Amino acid sequence: MNRLEMTWKGVWGMARSKRKPVETNTKEENKKGKVIPLTSAIKSGKKQKVNNEEGNKTLFFLAFGGLMLLLFYPPFFRGLFFPVEQRWTLLFAAVLFFLTYLWKLSRREVAFLNHPLDFAAAALVVVYILAAVKPASRSLAVAEVAKVFLYFLTYWLVSRLGGQRRSLYLLNTMYLAAAGTALAALFSATEIVYIKDGFVGGRFYSTLQYPNALASYVGAGSLIGFYLWGQSDSRRRYLYAAANYLLLMVFLGTGSRGALLVFPGAVLLFWLLAPRGYRLNTLAHIAVSGGAALFGIARFIPLAVAKAYGPAWGWFILGLVVALSGQLVIQGTGRILFTARARWAAGIALLVLFLGGGFILVQRQMSVSPAAVEGQTSSLLARILPPQIMNRLQDINLETKSSKERLLWTKDAIKMVRERPLLGFGGGGWEAAYRQYQSYFYNSTQVHNDYAQVAVETGLTGLGVLALIWLFFLQAALANYRTLNGKERLQVAAVATAALNLGLHAALDFDLALGAISIMLWACFGLIRNMEEQRLGQETVMAAVEWKNKRAAYVTGAGFLTLILILFSVSYLAGVNSARRAAVALQRNNLNAAASYLEEAGRYDPFTASYNSDLAGILLQQGKNKEALTSALAASFKDPFNLNVLNRLAEAYWQNGALEEAIATMERARQIAPWVGAVWENLGRAYATAGINYLQAGKQDRARQMFQAAASLPDDVQEKVNTLGELKELHQQGGVALTPTLRLQAAIGQYFLGLTKEAAANLKAAAVDGQIKDEVQLWQAVLASSQGDEREASRLLAQVDKTNASLARQFDQLKKLPQLVR
């Protein structure tokens, strides 16, 4: 072709583009698998689909490298469960968002949200923000907004930065994090490294510090590992085989009953969804890895508990040898047998041999002693698994205490949803307000059902948005699965089943409260979203002329959002730092410095009530009662359901002479925590003390009301306890009960009401508690003196004087107070 012909063809091409829409050529090029040049989009002045490899490479590599780090480190920082680690991570994610959006802008891709899953994910953030307008706790609500924003940014980053080989890098990163967490569990069990609560009661907790969450996390990692093993070459399969063995071994060592209900189903679904060419090898690999994990865990945990660390690692290595030998057999069989039928037959034969060999080994006692208790038949599984794990597996049913409690806690959560059905109690609403709705006394800051917890925090609105997220995710996953083939289809199966494993187990526990697990789940959402984008080619660029006019606005908008997130995180972290300085100053008894630092913390973080409440306590010590009351009121406004905050407010009212308000505050505490025993005891003490103060002030009618309230507490408590019914066996220590302290306060009220017989009986019952014996004997002395028994009164008072002279000196003052006998 000569130069004239080339020119003519170029002119003809330009003329043709004027007569036909550019989109038609774009579709034809996409069908042929060709990349559409960015220059053609610029010249045409139309929005065009572009290649993901274009754009500023420096920005891309910085953002992508940061994303890999974001997906890797969370499990090693206590699972990202605590707010400080969460805010640092949000700060990091905000910077990555800005870099990523700048990279997108370098390609003239301006869309922030352009898929139903994008909008649903963003809507969840909006709902949490709306729920924070009138929350049960401002600090907890704001903390939850930060968490949900972090998860959304994770999803957004993965969905924009992933793509074919890049998605493989991201999956390997999450897999490596899971494997590292599993290895940390073994290191902790054998004291190679110290991890607080990393190995407790013969169960793996690792860096997540919770075995059930660890089981869910490494289970999802295993599903990703099965895919990575299936798509890799023969050499790398040995590495994945070793890591998958490690993950499954730690999974078994968690002893999580909920995970053992969910994970096998997820594995089965993954295998069923695997493309035909991968099913047999995948089945063989799963069977060999699982068998090796059983072999390794059989003695590792008992030996680790016995602190025989060398033999424990020996059993781990033996299991590793089994896993790698199985990989060698699988690989060799695939090379020798050429037909699918022959490979299936060989696979079944090897599986039978493997199971048979394991059975023989077990029968020869190459395992632990039976975990079954005396009188029960020892099962095969009981002879393999460590006793600590087997004992948990044997009581997987709805009749266990744990199962009953979780069902009841979910019912209590439903009560809360009925109270605020639209937007709930705000983030952290369960933790803040659950005591008002609990059916009996228990301590649990989590519902142990993440979906019920979302409903409590954001009402039916938030639960509906979360349901839409799952719906759009499953829709996209199904569409990808139907369209893609081979390794891509296997990847869809792995990511989808890993997400389902995390999501289903979250209905049984509070796994998603750990940021590390939620980040993995939202990364799975993002990967599926990215696969659909890669499949459909939805990314578009803005026309050159329009871009020139609007790019400053887009950069400014992205920068503004990033700046808000940075300031939001930094201000919280600065508040934490000031609070820590206040704690140090308080330890040194430097009250002025402590107060100054707490005021500073409150300025940095205006949402956390504890700063105001702690400041009120210091101001009370300094005698600044009015300032203390102001600070305590500010704390109660931010956290109206917090018992510690209410107690401090009552104290501030009391020190300011506002006894009525102090009593009303204590009664409100009983209203919002009716099953907490300490609340009743504090209220009884307040009634008795207020009655004495009123009596000293000559306000006998008001004093009588206080003493009557104190005297009636035993009957009120007994009536409350009687409502427990069948739940009495679940009612935990520290709950409402007729305690010696309550009997003492009731006796004081009864004494002043002239009910001396009842007072004597309650004082006698209260005397069994050594911690309040001095006070009981003081009142017994007062009672004896009022009845004319001065010898007994002197004897009791002498005993009090030996142990608490200052208390004994109150005798004369109390004895002079009149009894209110009608």
UniProtKB/TrEMBL annotation:
The keyword ATP-binding does not apply. The chain crosses the membrane at residues 58-76, 88-105, 117-133, 139-158, 170-190, 210-230, 258-274, 286-306, 312-330, 342-362, 459-478, 514-531, 552-574. The keyword Transmembrane helix applies. It is found in: Membrane. It is a multi-pass membrane protein. One of its GO terms (molecular function) is ligase activity. It holds the Pfam family TPR_16. SUPFAM superfamilies: TPR-like. Keywords: Ligase, Membrane, Transmembrane, Transmembrane helix. GO terms for cellular component: membrane. Residues 246-466 form the O-antigen ligase-related domain. Gene3D superfamilies: Tetratricopeptide repeat domain. This is O-Antigen ligase.
